[in-house]
Structures are given as C-alpha cells and as structure tokens.
C-alpha cells in the first residue's frame, strides 16, 4: 500500500529518484496484440524532456526509454511491460547545502518526518523527475486508446499568471514551447518567463485536458467514478492544487436551469458537465482543468528549519523550471490516458458478457 | 472492479438504491477495541437526513442505522462491520413518467448506455441517497480519528450562488440549517432558497472541509498522495465538479515567493498549501474546497431524449433539494475522514517496524 | 486489508458472526442483465444448511437469503448486490463456559492474541457459519457461469476417514446426505458417523471439486494463476489443510514421461494436470481436491489454557458436525465458482479489445 | 488485474521473459530504515542460480542483481525498490523448432490460446526463469523478517521420486546440491538424477518450508487467511500441484481427538495444525509442504499439436533440470517470506492503534 501505483486493471507501478541510477515502471494489464515500440513512447518523453527550450530547466536528460519485456516481435504479449530510463545529468553536489535543511513548499520536511530518512538529492522520490515514467506508461495508453478506440487525449496551457488563453487552436500547441493554443499570447509568455528568470522567481499555471471521441459508458457508479479517478490522477501530479471537470468552480453560482445539458435527437445542446454524468462518460468531450502552483525552487532566500528544528535561511540551487506548468502538459495527458485506459478495461470486464441492448462501446 | 468501494486498508463497500429495500455497507479494517454504538453513527446521519428543514428535500427518512456485526460488548472486534439503513419513504410512482426518458444532468442516460438496464426509481444506484452509507461509515472513521489521534474533520458551506461567507465561526455551523459559519448571511440564504422554490430552480454551492490536528506524515509519495486521495473522495460525491487543496486555483497567478509556506522554529508562517506537501500531511490544517453543481431535478421543463432516441420534454417530479450543497456538508466530512483513516492505517503498516528518529506520529 | 473479501473484479465481501444478528455480503462486479432471484441462491443454501440431516449439526437455521439491491425487475443491474441472512437459532449460553478459555484446534487463542478481544459465542467471526454468505455469493457466480458460458462446478465427498470413494457417479450426489458419489459406501459412512456420535469424536474428509466445460485461457500468468487462486480459495475454507490440482501430491514420484498430458488433434490424451497448464485453464475439466481436518469441537475433554495462561480442562458444548467435510461440499463449489467468475471477467478485461486469432473463449 | 503482482502492502510486481533483455521487479511497501545491499539479495539468487551443480540445468546465468532505487546510503527509504537482473545466456535458437508446436505439460498451448500471441523462446513469461525476481524480492522480506522480528524462513527437499527424507538436519541443507536435510539419502539422489539424465526423463519432488519464530496473530480471519495466502503463493510456483499446511492430507483419516493440538501453560503439546489456527499464526512453527511435478521438458519424444491443430511429434531441446524441485527450494522460501512480510505489515496497519491487552506481537 505504499502507493507507487495507479490503475486497477491497466496498472502502472513506478520506481526511481531524481538522482538515482535510473527510473522505471511496470505496466501490467496491457491487452495483447498492440503494435508497440520504444519510438512510440519517445514522442511524449521528448515533449516532456528537460532542457528542451530556454523556458524550462537546463538539466539535460535525453530520457531514452528502453522496453525490457512484454513485447515480442513488435507486439504486446499481454504480459507485464518493463520500461526504464537512465538518469545521466544528475548534479548531486548542488544539493549538499540542503542536506540538513528543508526547502519550504517542497516535500523535504514531510518526507523526513514520515520516513525518518530522506534522499535529499534533487528531492529524491518526491521530484517531478519521477513523472518521466508516467509519461512513458501513459504513452502506451495513448497509443491503445487512439489506435483501437479512436480516443484522443490532448492538453495545453490555458493560463500562466495573469495571461489567459483567449483563442483556442489545437494546431498551435506543438508549434511553441509553451504548449499554448493561442498564438497571440506567446510574446507575453516569453516576457513573463524572462522576467521570472531575472528575478529568480516562479509562477503558477492552469492547464486544460480534453479527451475526445470517448465512448459513452466509461466509469463506475459510486466511488471509482470517472471524474473521481481523473481528479485523483491529476491532483497526484506534483504541484497541482486544484482540479475541475467541465464548468468546475463556475457551477457555484449557476442555476440548475442553466447548468443541465439538454439532450435532443441531434445530441447534447451544451457541455457544462465536461463529458461526465453520474461518474460515467456521456460521449461528449471530457474536459478537465488543473491548477499548478509556482515551484518553490527559486533563487530568493527564505526562512526554513533544519533537521534540528532551528530556523535557518535557505536558497535553492540547481536548475529549475520558472513555470512547472509547461512541462506538465504531457504529464496531464498521460495521467488522463491511464485513467481512461483503466476504465475501458474495467468496463469490458463487467459488461461484455451479457447480451444487452446495443450501445456505443 | 465495479468500484463500489473506497479505501485500501480501511475499506468501505456500499450497496443500495434510492428506492430499494435498504442501503448498507461493510467497513473492513477498523482496528479492534474502539468503543462504537449505533448512536455514534446516528449523529451525522441526522445532520445529513432528508426532511430535516424546510430548505431541503421533503422526503422523510428516519435513516436509523443498524450495526449488524463487528462490534462485541460495545467494542469493535477488528472484523468486518456490517451496517444497514432501511428505506421507508420511497414514492416510486413519482418516477413512472421518466421510465423511458433521460433526465438531463443526471446519470439516467449514461447508466442506461453503460448497463443496458436502469433502475429509474429515484435514480437507482446513482442517487445521492447512496451517500447515507458513506456518512455512516465515515462516522466510524471520525470517531476513531478524534478519540485515538485527536484529529477533527469539519465542513461548512462557504458559498451558495453569489452569497459568500465572510465571517468564519465554526460555532455557528450547527446552529443553522445551512451549515453556514457566517451568521450575517443567513437571511440572504433563506431568501435565495425561497426564491428558488418559487421558481422551481436550483443553485450551486461551494463547501470547505478542514481537518485539524492531523499529524505530519500521512500520505504516500507518488500516486496515492493524500491530496490525490482527497480529490478522488470529494470529486466522487454526487454533483461535485471541482476540488481544491489550500489556495487551489488561486495559485495560477501566484509567484513562488508568495506561495511557499516558510518555516521557522515556531512553525509555518502561512498555509497556502492546505496542509499537504509532496502529497504528505505537513501537520498544518488540511483545507479543501469543493464545488457542487445545481441539481438538474427542477420543475422547469426541458428537452431530452427517450430510450428510442427521440426528442421529448421532461419535468422532474419528486421531492428535491434546491441546493444539494447543504446536505453535502456531512458527506464531505465523511469522505475526508475515510481518506485520513485509511492513510493513518497505511502509514502504520509501513512505518512502525523500524526504529527511526522520533517523529510526530 | 482486513481481508474479508475475495476476488478482484467479481468481488465478494462478507460480514457477520456465528451468534450475531445476521450475516451478509456485498457482491460487486456482477455483469448486468443476469436473471437473478432469491430462489436461485436458496438452492445451495439449502444444501449447506445446518440441521438438514441427522449426520450434521442440529442447529436449525432456515438460512433464508434476502436480496437487498443490485437487481431490478428480476435482472442484475451491474451495481453492487447486497445479500443478508438472519441468524435465528443461536444458543449463546452454550458458550459461556468457554468465555475465558481457548478451545484447542479452534481460532479462539489466535483471535484473542491478534485482536485483544474475542466474540466467544460460537467462535464469532471465525465460525464456519460465515460460509453461508460464501455459498450465497457463489450461487450468483454459479448461475452466471452455467447460463452464460456453460461452465458447471460440482463437488462431492471423496473420502471420509478410511472410507474412499471407488465408484464415481455424479447422479448419486444429491441422493444422499453425504454428497457421496458412490452408493456402495453409504452404509459404511452411516456407521462411521454413528460411531463418532457415540464416542463424541469427529473425523476428517477429502472432497473433490470438478469444473467442467471451462474454456481455455482463464488465469493470469505469474502470481494470480488460476491454480494459485483456487488454492487460496479452498485453503481459505474453515478446517482445510491441503489442496491439490490434478494428480496433486501424486506427482512426487511420477516421471515427466508419465505426467505430461500429450495432445493430439482429438484432444488431450490424459488429464494429470487437472485442467490447468502454466496457471491457465487448458479447456479440460478442472479437478481439485481438498483435505478437511476433523473438527476440534468434540465431547472428549482436553487440556487448554485460559486467558490468564493457566492450564485448564475444556469440553466443547454446543451442536456440532461430526464431519465438517460433508457440509463443505457446497462451500467448495461456491469458492471455485467465485474464482472462475473472477478470472472470466479478468480475462475479458484484458483481452477483448484487440482483434487476435480466433480462440475458444 | 493481469496478476503479475503479489502482496497487498508489501507488494512485489515482476516483469521479464526467459529470453528477454532482462528481468526486473518493483518492491513497494518496504518499511524505511532497513539496511539493504545487493549482496544481501545475491545470497539466495546464488542458491537458485542455474548451472550451479551438475544436477541442475546447464544454462549459465550469473544472476547479478542491481538495486536501482529505494535505498539511500545503505538504507531503505520507504519508497519503491527497483531491482533488475540481466539475461546473458539465452540460446533462443534452441526454441525455433517449437515455434509452431506446443510442448505438452507446458504453458505453450494455454498462452497461445489466451493471448493469441506467444513468445516461444524458452517459454517466454511462463518460464521458471521469472522466479529469479521472486527470489530477489523475497530476499528483502527475509532480511527484514529475520533482522527486525527474528523470523527465519527455511526450506528443503523432503522427497524426490520414492526417496523420502528420514533424518532431518537443517545444518545439512546448504552442504549438498539437493538442499537435502538427510545425509544418508545423498547417494540415492545422485543415482536417481544420473539415471534420469541417461534416460532423458525427469522426476517430481516434495519440499517442506518451515517458518520459525513467527509471532502469534498474523493472518486475516476470513479470506486472506495466512494459510490461504501461503497456499496461493506456493501453488503459484511453476510446476507445483499440491500444498499442505501441517498434517495436510493426513488429516483425512484423523480423529478430532488426535488432531487438535492441546495447550498447556508450557505451550502446545503438538503441531498438527502447522502453526496456523483459524487462518492466524499460533506462534508455533509454520510448516508447509508442496509437491512439484516432473518437468515436461525431457528428451523423450511425444505427441502434440501445432498451431494449425495437427498432430505432430515434439522433443524438447534446450537445457533443463531433471528435477525442478531442487532449485525451487529458495523460491519456496521467498514466497513464504513475502506472504509473512505482507501479513506482518497488514497486522500493524489494523492493530497498532488501540491500546489493548499485551500480546506477543
């Protein structure tokens, strides 16, 4: 129950620390017969990779994934898939200064209190470096969902600081280093990041994830609802402090007569629900938003305590993202893809046996 | 994997439908030796009970819980606890009109598509009536947490429509039918509900849950983080569309230098994080917010489709809450208590064996 | 993790004690659309019922099961099924004498040491009375397997004391109170039980379970093998001390050239494996054997200790089976049916998505 | 739910095939603060290693394990532990001849039917080569159990063919290549293996596992009983067809007056139960036996079918063990250690919170 796994039927378990030898994961439950190669997974790993642009951390990791098992002659066999990514650009000496003091806003203090021991190098297991394996595993889910079902899971930056996306164009997202769908905001984003770097500060962000072409019927009725599992998966990304489905917190001052998405023979009239009703996908686009806090790894000194409980100053050295929200875009996609994949398989488990009225899955 | 359960070690599995004979649950994993009676659980069941005030649904259920197992001579035995609540005031005939048509904004359409069969009486399993068992099970968690650890989990209404709480006083919460901590807002809330009833409409709400006196160290590092599991548990409540920890979506335009909660020998200087760092409790108050949509069960007719896919009109009969957020207050407490209880036991499982430096748990 | 549940996708969680108000269970994961009534489940409950013949315990329980949820208009809905059976013939006063002393061979001592508290009335949760819910839940699995897939799960007595079955006739099993397939052994069994009753003693037994018409392909490759899960399920029945698949312990002095079941176009030449190869069903009959110890609830006094650790004498009062193996026949069927049902759904989850070469499931 | 994992709290998930690049596993849930090095794990890996003596397979694998995560400065951190072992001596060409035909007694046919695809090289995932990771993971459990609790888990050969151990001396076990505790049987075992090699045949075996110094109280009451989980773990070892606890199948013709282990102030008078009562450890030695079939990989040709369903002849090439029971000794220890470790942590989870009467754990 140490919790390093996600999913019930499509289950991903990860290991590895920021400055360890390597990171890895096991994907258990992938159906057999899926075409799968390392190149398939490298696409998203490259999108998430540190050092990819001047706007993200300058740690240089090639993040080359190796497929160690579960694939034979180019196809998945139905058995467990082992994946590994080696760490190559650790600079552990950067962290000697914080060996005995806890960086505020990080997991340093809570890990130490929980376990009585702490790998202080780059945050150890609490580092967002761990998400490299989520992206690798999510790549398998994304490929299966797209190829076998037609589901596409995409994410983008929708706000950074006060800069909100206004024009939404999916085609722009891969054209700029911010995963921003609004070309008119790129200059402002560039200016904001430059100013943050100058000041040694960081900023929060809001992302949007959209899963399209999801069949109706995914999700379980009570606890393991599709929205609950998406909330779990997104809130579990480092730095996330809020998750919304559909209109999210906007529903607080809506009336029932406004919010309910009426249905006609031609389909739903609106999508306030974000594609999920009663915890089960409605066949509309699934729309989720997430809020990421500004990283606490900044160059401005602050107060903290050390392992002896004394107040001391700390400054975070090392190479960090001024806005961790940017590189979280492929991570958010991976998490939603893993949840959808798991619920697709769960749905099949329970429902494919009895002959019932035709439905869309 | 049908998902009618929550928790790994402290595990709650529920059954029952809105208009079935009874609802029940099994609580597996409660430690032995806890004083427990039906009266302990009735407290929160009464707070959630329908028909308790003129502001909520007029369905009258006494919601008397029976303890069927797992307790011997007033103490838990460590074995599974069976709980049952009988339904007494079903009016299934109210639902005959929607037998073949799907109420928008409800789970009618998605259940039918998922399962090919639907208990249309009061929404069947998708009804919030199911939450009666969550409150009963959560009562066990709340009692254990408070008595054995000192943790207190409380929730309140923080916004309804445009009416936001400004003065926060926990002592007020049980003094008014809205669970509102701000006595100056009661008249406005009363007026809003009256107006909704007149118009046959409904409104959304925002709730706040605070868990105080939580020891540092609860939560697992990567996927099963404490914040992720809280998000899962709260998003899994009927009608919830958003969940925040600490500053939530407010972090999007915060700077790192603002957000990080500095530490000194005297403790944390602030609590932007909402009491969780790196997925693990920090020892500060855990603060979560949730947004509940306005119920779609309103008296204003609208378009929908029937089981043959034809566009038809529908009006929801039956007895409904104008603001489902009110009665969700004890439900939100129960869900957070279940999550904390589960993580407390998970923490014990992994950590109590090796003698490590003293810590607060 | 308190372990009162079996199955991953078809999951059965039970509650209840020997002398509590009632016993119950929740069956989560049953596919929708299955015809299901209380009468379906009563068949096996009656076969297991105490007081059914003079050869078993004289506790009289009608064991009437109530279906509380998950079925609508005679069909399962895909949501969780609540079942309950009330206790009616407890004689708790019989157990006052053992309140403070531990019956050897029972769970009295281990429960007390584990939990620090013990419901001494009839063994509390450790009583085989709990298996009434396994039989009820197993009845759902049996019905689904037979109706939807054609799988039949049957068990019988194959040995009691030194009396071994020699002539195997399934048709005899429901014709005698021993579930014995060999009509020539009935007199000997009758004489043995009479002699045991006279002496206040008890005897062990061996049962055989056969699942026929199982499709090839059920079972997972490594840990959750079909044979491993059957071993878990059968060893988990009260009093079971051994489990065999196919030739079982007979393989110890077999040669590889004898044991391997050769294959031809006409099928397997033999079934030493008991229908499972590499943890996966081969399409042959699945054959398992289990050994049940003689119950320790006998009228012959013996030594034990009391809660203060002092040596004392104990005699078991109450009404007991001279051979618990008899009534374990429907329990063994139920356990194997639950395992097969779970693996059928697990198989569907992982495999139905990709179009692969035709196969028998 | 693809089942490549064992354990609930101490959870081991494995990946890898006989002829893949490498095998690996993740151990999740190990408590923090345990001294752990690769050398600790190498001990049992060497005991299991192929090519270790002339009595086992001549495939030469050094089976060097690498610890990739979860250990910092020589101590476990409480986070997930990644382990890897590279394959170095695959001879995949040996298997080209069976590419399209199914070896009887192996998983070839069932895998192919289940998944529609099969890694035929050395049995792929169904190979006992996979158990290398069970031994590595079990090494962590064994170290923790011994160092922190004092529990020792040991296994030995107790029968091969008709040769049964008569004199039991643990000290002999590491002194001979058969893990045999009876020095008087070594010549007979040597002769038997030589004869098998001459004839190209194989033989079955019986092993005994003993866990000593186990505290009373481990195991859950109903389904996840300690005996049930041991049965699951041992039956899940390749080639195992039977599992016994204590007197096992010997109980069938025992009387209750013989079997029950009486208790006195000085302890139990006997141990027919094998150290488990009501599914919970009694504090006595836990004694389990397992039967392993003779491997079907022998040099004597036989009938089988090919992928087109036609009857064909097959002879197994490759390098095989004449008695797979020998090398299963450390595997059986590992499996029982993993189960005990998991139940130790499960026990702590549920029980350490309430102050109850002192007990031995």
UniProtKB/TrEMBL annotation, chains A, B, C, D:
One of its GO terms (molecular function) is chorismate synthase activity. FMN binds at residues 125-127, 238-239, 278, 293-297, 319. SUPFAM superfamilies: Chorismate synthase, AroC. It comes from the Bacteria. One of its GO terms (cellular component) is cytosol. It catalyses: 5-O-(1-carboxyvinyl)-3-phosphoshikimate = chorismate + phosphate. Its cofactor is FMNH2. The keyword Flavoprotein applies. PROSITE patterns: CHORISMATE_SYNTHASE_1 (PS00787), CHORISMATE_SYNTHASE_3 (PS00789). GO terms for biological process: amino acid biosynthetic process; aromatic amino acid family biosynthetic process; chorismate biosynthetic process. Its EC number is 4.2.3.5. The keyword Disulfide bond does not apply. NADP(+) binds at residues 48, 54. Pathway: Metabolic intermediate biosynthesis; chorismate biosynthesis; chorismate from D-erythrose 4-phosphate and phosphoenolpyruvate: step 7/7. Reduced FMN (FMNH(2)). This reaction introduces a second double bond into the aromatic ring system. Belongs to the chorismate synthase family. This is Chorismate synthase. It comes from Candidatus Enterovibrio escicola. The gene is aroC.
